[in-house]
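ugh ok fine here u go
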Amino acid sequence: MENRKKLLIAGFLTLIAAGMGFGVRGGLLDVWSAQYGFTMTELGQITGGGLLGFGLVILLAGAMIDIVGYKKLMVIALLCHVVSALMLFAATPVFSASGKEAVYSLLYLSMFIFAIGNGICEAVINPLTAAIYPEQKTHYLNILHAGWPAGLVIGGLIVYLKGTLGWEILMATFLVPVVMYGMIALKEQFPKTAAEEGAISYGGMFTKLIGPFFLILLFAHACVGYVELGTDSWINKITGKILSSAALGTTLFIYTSLLMTGLRFFAGPIVHKISSLGLLFASAIIGAAGLYLISIGDSVPFLFFAATIYAIGKTFLWPTMLGVVGERFPQSATVAMALMGFAGMTSAGSLGGPGIGYKQDYFASQHIQENAPATYARVKAPNENSFLFFPAITGIDGAKAGMIEDAGASISSEVAILKDAIDDEANSGLKSQFNWWEANKEFAAEDKGPVAAATLHGSRMALKVTALVPATMAVIYLILIVCFKAPKEDGDTGVADAAAGSDS
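structure:
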C-alpha cells in the first residue's frame, strides 16, 4: 500500500499513547498511595485492571476485525481514550466525598477504559503491520513496538513534573498522541483482511491454529506479559525504593525504556543471525539475570548495570513472539495475534500487576511482624488482601507509611488549609487519616526505620521471585528449538510438525 508508512506511524502513535499512560501511572503510584491510602496490593489491582481490560479487548476486537474492519475499531479506541482521561479529574472530589473505596473504583474503571482503547489498538496494529509489511514481519513488528518504550520514556519525563502540576493533568498527557493517531485513522484508507478478501474462511483461521505449537506459544506469551508488563507496572517504584530516591527510580526507568526503543529497530539483523526462537531464548535468560541483579543491587552504578541487563532481556520478547505467529500463521494473523495479546495482557493484568503487589505486601508484612510487631500493629492496613489461592494478608497502609515518612507534614498542611471544613462529610477520608496521625505521631520516629526496612525487603523479594518467570520461559524456548532441530520419524505429529504444517 502507498500509505503503509502513515499506517505504521499511526500504530506507532497508539503505542506511544499506551506507553505514556503506563509510564506516568507507574510514577504516580506513590502519590496515590499517600493521598488515598492504598496498599501495594490495591495499587497492583488498579494497574492490573488496566492490563486485564487490555487483554480482554484484544481478544474481542481481534475477533471483530474481519467483520467491522480496521478503521472503525480505531475510531472506537479514540473515544475510549478520551473518556478515560476525563474520568481522572473526578478522583480527588470523589475521595473527598466518598472515601477510599469510591476513588479506588473510579481509578480502576478509568484504567479499564483506557485499557479498552489500548486493547482495540493492539488488536488492529499487529495484524495490520504484518499485512502491509509481509516481507519482514518480525522486523517491522519490532519497529512498531518501539513506540511502547518511546511512550514510557516520554511518560517518565512527565513524571518529573510531579509536584508542580496536578497528577490528573500529568496522567492525561497521553491525549496528545491519541489526537495524532486519530487524525491519521480518520483520514487514511486501511487494507482488507484475508477473511474480508475471501482468501480464508473465519472458521478456517481457527482450524489452522489447532495444535501444540500454538498452545505452547500462548503459554509462553502469558509469561512474557507477566514478566514485562507486570514488572514494568512496579519497576519504577521498586528501584526508587532501593535507591531511596523516587527521582532516581524514574531516571532508571527512562534510561531502560530509551534503550529498548533503540534496540527494537535492530531486531531484523539479529533474527537473521540466530533465528526468532534463538533470540527469544537468549532474551529470557538475560531478562531473568537482570531481574535478580536488580533485586540485590544497593548502589546507583550497580542498579544501572542490572537494569541494562534487564532491559536488553525484555526488549525483543513481545514483538518477536508476534513475529513468530505472523510468520507461521499469516492467513490467521488477526485471530492468532489477538489470542496472543489476550494471553499476554491477561496474564500481566490478573497475575503480574496484582501478583507482584501481593508479593511485596507478603514479604514486607512478614518482615515487619517478625522485627517490629508493635510498629506493624500501628501501620497495618484496615483490610486484608488476597491473591489467587495464596493466604490473605494485611499489608502496610500506604497513607500511614507516607505520614511517617514525612513526619505528618503533608497531612497537617492539608488540614490547615481546610481549617473548619475538615469536619465536613466531604472530607471524611482526609479527617480519618489526620486522626490516625494525631493518635500515633509520638511513635513516628520509632516506626520510620522498621517501615522503610520492611518495604525495601518486600520489593527485593518480589523481584527475586519474579525472576523465575523468564527462567521458565527460557526452558520453553529451548524445548521448542530442540524440537525443531530433532529429526522427525514417519507419522510424527509433534510440535515441530505442527509448526511446519501451519499456514505458512
